[in-house]
Amino acid sequence: MMNQYDVIIIGGGIAGLQAAIQLGRYKHSIAVIDSNDGRSSICRSYHNILGWPDGVSGETLRSLGKMQAERYGVSFVHNEVLKAEKGDEAFQLFCRDGETYTAKRLLFATGVKDNIPPIKNMNKCLGLSVYVCPDCDGYEVVDKHVIVIGSGKPGANMALTLTYFTKEITFINHDWQNLDNETMDDLKKKEITYIQDDVEEILVAGESSHFVGVRLKSKDILNGDRGFLGFGGNMVRSELAKDLGIERTENKHIIVDPRTKKTNVDHVWAAGDITVHSEQTTIAMGDGMQAAIWIHKSLINEK
After folding, report:
1. What is the per-residue pLDDT for 172?
2. CA–CA separation, 274 vs 22, rounded Å?
3. Cβ contact 68:61 at 8 Å
4. What is residue 2's predicted lDDT score, i.e. its pLDDT?
5. pLDDT of residue 303
6. pLDDT tens digits for 227-280?
7. Phi, psi of 230 (to 5 degrees)
8. Bridge partners, residue 114, by sequence
9. Residue 237: C-alpha distances to residues 112, 136, 182, 189 (Å)
10. Residue 229 near residue 204 (C-beta atoms within 8 A)
11. Which is the CATH superfamily of the domain at 122-230?
């Protein structure tokens, strides 16, 4: 079965949804193909977004965004694109369930998948009292005792970054990665408590999602007010783009024109964390809007 559209957006997170809404308002035929496991689905309380002073979850934004896009006729497909090919007049996308889709234009909004270890109670606290982004949630730990669970240099850097917000920080080197002498000296200068051990469990208050500390593999218990993660190895979801010949940086982010969000491949755009790694919802929205405007311009110019 062949499903034909003017534009297919791969990824239904914040950037993809904003682009879908705008392109729907241009009255193009649009499909969003999404596997529903993007990073915005794990963020349950954004507090730095205009208009949401009491916070808003990624799930709420995604749900509202999908509903809004559907009002403009945008189709949503819960699937995973395994392969993309460029033909003479259109792109072909081959999905996990065997379905094939074609589009005149593509927008990659597949984002980044965070490296989050499978520690007990992690999902219960994630985005509420255990955080991953200091720009988003550093304010939430002002003058609190923060326990940074991380791996080697990325974890140490997270702990050092958080000294802007609080002076009471414990860094647990969960993966036992070696740290150079300079980094160890930096931790000491900032009076960051350093522990090398595995975290077995996040401790919560009763049945809540409120972080109160951790239990280590050694069975020691450390009390704290909030948690932060500092693991490297986040996965940039740009392999499909690579197969189309799209230029990427060394860390696999897609290179785009800063004004139009267009890639080096004709009729292909990219938006959101897959391009800039800013990890900011508001920037992802802006990226999606910019890409949509220039995709529209290319379609009407063609006509």
Report:
1. 97
2. 20
3. no
4. 57
5. 66
6. 999 998 888 999 999 989 999 999 999 999 999 999 999 999 999 999 977 779
7. -140, 70
8. none
9. 6, 22, 33, 37
10. no
11. FAD/NAD(P)-binding domain (3.50.50.60)
What amino acid occupies position 116? I
How far apart CA 105 and CA 19 sit, in angstroms, is 13
- Please give the pLDDT value at position 183: 96
Tokens found for residue 16: 């993809």
User: Among residues 57, 230, 47, 13, which one has the least CA distance to residue 130?
Assistant: 230
Cβ–Cβ < 8 Å for 170, 192: yes
Q: Which two tokens stand for residue 123?
A: 């999902």
Please name which of 108, 131, 92, 90 lies closest in space to residue 224, comparing C-alpha atoms: 131
Question: pLDDT at position 13, please?
Answer: 95
On whether the pTM is more than 0.90, the answer is yes
The DSSP line for 64-104 is HHHHHHHTTT-EEEE--EEEEEE-SS-EEEEETTS-EEEEE
- 122-230 has the same fold as 2-114+234-302: yes
Beta carbons within 8 Å of 185's beta carbon, 6+ residues apart: none
Give every residue of the chain whose pLDDT is below 50, as ranges: 1
β-pair type (100-108, 91-95): antiparallel
Domain boundaries, the chain: 2-114+234-302, 122-230
CA distance 239 to 248: 10
Give the 3-state secondary structure of residue 198.
coil
120-to-50, 181, 280 alpha-carbon distances in Å:
33, 32, 27
pLDDT (0 to 100) of residue 1:
46
Rounded to an integer, what distance in angstroms lies between the CA atom of residue 50 and that of residue 102?
A: 36
Q: What is the CATH number of domain 2-114+234-302?
A: 3.50.50.60
pLDDT of residue 17: 98
Query: 165 and 141 in contact (C-beta within 8 Å)?
Result: yes
Q: Which amino acid would we find at residue 62?
A: R
Q: In angstroms, what CA-CA distances link 168 with 138, 188, 231?
A: 13, 12, 20
Can you give the pLDDT at residue 41? 76
